[in-house]
Predict the 3D structure of the following.
Amino acid sequence: MLLEAVQSAFFAMLEAFKKERPGTSELAAADPTSRLHRTYLWRTLTSDDTTEELRAQALRAFRRGFRIGRRGKPRTLTRPIPPMLQPPVGWDVAPDLPGPSAARDRAIRALPPPASREELASREQELRALYASAWREDVPEEDRIWAAIYRDTCTMSVNYRWRRALAQSAYEGYLQSSDGRFGGEPARPWMSLSHHTSEPWCSFVDRVVEAPEGESDLATAEAAVWEYWDTLYREAPPWDSDPDQAHWLAALRAARRKAQADDGPPDMDE
């Protein structure tokens, strides 16, 4: 029954992928059963050597990935931003894109260093005008792929920082409530957390930001804690006791205060 449910969910994901991006990959047209049986998940679930703990972790990761795929990117990463005329870090190593604007973008960035301030200013002005065109509603057909990827890259870059700032506020709000302890031990500063230990806080604030209108703080906090646990793949710190709930509620309120303070056009100078 479990394997049948996993197979059904996997096939549903493939069908959704083919509808969203028809003809974009040979993998989309490959035999779905063959693809499933090659996955780490399937091999883990069907192997006699897999421990029950590892099997449960793999299944939990799959369920989480399935939910994320169904609902798409969180609101924390899709918040609209004003036109961004300076590309984010990493844009210069983006893969080659089609269209004349993409070709011009690559050509300008490949030029040798400018020989004068005037040449630098002229080059920067041309690039700003080029990137401004990506935000227009009447982007020519041949430039739409380049423009869409540029806009998405800028939006993700700005909102990734915002999402991390909310997560940091939630973490620090929890620590203020718990006298600096986390999981029964003295907590480390936010900047010293690994991706594995900080990413669950991003999932926590995703649920806080997306809370339905009228939902109580307690219900939102509990749902956000489950998102935290699912990302961490274990149910810790706990939720059930009064002190623990107070700490999680403090995290929720700190994240909301940060979100409300930043409610407005994102700072393009960050």
